[in-house]
User: Which sequence fits this backbone?
C-alpha cells in the first residue's frame, strides 16, 4: 500500500500541481483554439494528470465541461432534454388511444391538438391551448426551420384557411399524431410539404 502523505504536504503539492498545470492548460487551450478544438475538456484532463503525478493519488477535479457551456449551449441542452420527455410520453399512446373530436385524454380519446396539449402537460414541457391554430399563434411558440427541428417540437399543417392540424415531431421526417378516427394515435411520416415547425420558448 502506498504511503499516505501528511495533509499539509499533500495540500501544498496539489496547489503546486494545479498552478503548474494552469500554464500548460492555457497552452493547450490556445493550441486547441487554433485547431478548432474544445479547450475546456483538455484543461480538466491536464489538471487531473498533474495532481496524480504530484501526489500519487487521483484528485476529484470539479471543473467539468458542462461548467464551461455558454448560455446558448445550456438552452439547447435543456430543449433537447425537454424534447426527449415529450417523445417518451407521446409514444406511450401509439396504438392504445383512439381519436375523438374534442378529446384531450387517454380515457376520452384525443383530437390532434388535444393530444399535443396532453402530452406537453404530462411531460412538463409547457401549457398549450386546445387548438392547432392557437398553439401555432402562441407568443412563446417560436418557428424553427425543418433543418433545426428536434424531436419534441411541434409540426403544424397549413391549408388555405390557416393551420388545421398539429403533431409532435419525432425526428427523421416522422411524427406522433392523433391522426383519424380509424387510425387513432399513430407514429407516421409527415405527410405534407406545407408544414412549419414550432418550439415552445
Assistant:
Amino acid at each position: 500500500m502506498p504511503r499516505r502523505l501528511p495533509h499539509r504536504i499533500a495540500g501544498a503539492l496539489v496547489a503546486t500541481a494545479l498552478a503548474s498545470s494552469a500554464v500548460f492548460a492555457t497552452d493547450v487551450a490556445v493550441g486547441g483554439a487554433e485547431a478548432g478544438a474544445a479547450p475546456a475538456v483538455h484543461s480538466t484532463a491536464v489538471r487531473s494528470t498533474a495532481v496524480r503525478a504530484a501526489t500519487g493519488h487521483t484528485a476529484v477535479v470539479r471543473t467539468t465541461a458542462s461548467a464551461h457551456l455558454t448560455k446558448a449551449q445550456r438552452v439547447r441542452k435543456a430543449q433537447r432534454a425537454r424534447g426527449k420527455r415529450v417523445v417518451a410520453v407521446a409514444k406511450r399512446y401509439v396504438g392504445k388511444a383512439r381519436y375523438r373530436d374534442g378529446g384531450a385524454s387517454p380515457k376520452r380519446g384525443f383530437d390532434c391538438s388535444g393530444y399535443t396539449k396532453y402530452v406537453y402537460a404530462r411531460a412538463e414541457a409547457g401549457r398549450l391551448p386546445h387548438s392547432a391554430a392557437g398553439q401555432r399563434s402562441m407568443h412563446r411558440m417560436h418557428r424553427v426551420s425543418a433543418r433545426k427541428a428536434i424531436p419534441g417540437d411541434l409540426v403544424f399543417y397549413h391549408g388555405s384557411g390557416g393551420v388545421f392540424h398539429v403533431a409532435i415531431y419525432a425526428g427523421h421526417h416522422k411524427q406522433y399524431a392523433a391522426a383519424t378516427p380509424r387510425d387513432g394515435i399513430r407514429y407516421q411520416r409527415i405527410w405534407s410539404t406545407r408544414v412549419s415547425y414550432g418550439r415552445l420558448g
Observations:
- Strands lie at 104-105, 109-110, 141-144, 154-159, 162-171, 174-180, 184-189, 195-200.
